[in-house]
Amino acid sequence: METAIVAGGCFWCTEAVFRDVIGVSEVESGYIGGTVPDPTYKQVCAGTTGHAEAIRVTYDPAAISYAEILDVFMGTHDPTQLNRQGNDVGTQYRSAIFPLDDAQRAEAEAAIARSNAEHGGRVVTTIEGPAPWYPAEDYHQEYWEGEGQRNPYCLAVIPPKLMKLRKSFQNRVKA
């Protein structure tokens, strides 16, 4: 198994997408890229810690490559919005890839180049790190499967992302 860390806005939304991807065995919401050790959700939401809401994906490289993980990531959020995704505004909602080694860094650069070709060179996704990973509080994990189904924000934002996943990456979606 291998690991990928990406930040694409609200981690509830990104986590919901990757839980449906073939080859992904685990998705954990958390915080990365800031200056405060072990931040809380409240601190990160205040926008003062420098952290991004992110997900750590555990996947089987025999079933899906890191490049494919990044293509799904870039294709299921808007990588052209600086420090925001829709109504979520702030550096904690930035689009970023956190490679864990030089090979992942090279793949991240290639994924951004592919996405830039599709978006007319407007991609603002950054490559950051290395940086410590901090798991989010328990109530954020698997949020869409529970509380998210009753959260009006999630009901407005997550289903369109899941539809985009199913439309654009049909061969990557769990049955």
Automatic annotation (TrEMBL):
InterPro entries: Met_Sox_Rdtase_MsrA_dom, Met_Sox_Rdtase_MsrA_sf
EC number in record: 1.8.4.11
UniProt KW Oxidoreductase keyword: yes
Pfam families: PMSR
This protein's UniProt keywords: Oxidoreductase
Statement: the UniProt record of this protein carries the keyword NAD: no
All residue ranges annotated as the Peptide methionine sulphoxide reductase MsrA domain in the record: 3-154
MF annotations from Gene Ontology: peptide-methionine (S)-S-oxide reductase activity
Catalytic activity: L-methionyl-[protein] + [thioredoxin]-disulfide + H2O = L-methionyl-(S)-S-oxide-[protein] + [thioredoxin]-dithiol; [thioredoxin]-disulfide + L-methionine + H2O = L-methionine (S)-S-oxide + [thioredoxin]-dithiol
Residues at the active site: C10
Functional summary from the UniProt entry: Has an important function as a repair enzyme for proteins that have been inactivated by oxidation. Catalyzes the reversible oxidation-reduction of methionine sulfoxide in proteins to methionine.
HAMAP family to which the protein is assigned, alphabetical: MsrA
Similarity section: Belongs to the MsrA Met sulfoxide reductase family.
Protein name in the entry: Peptide methionine sulfoxide reductase MsrA
Organism, scientific name: Novosphingobium album (ex Liu et al. 2023)
Lineage summary: Bacteria, Pseudomonadati, Pseudomonadota, Alphaproteobacteria, Sphingomonadales
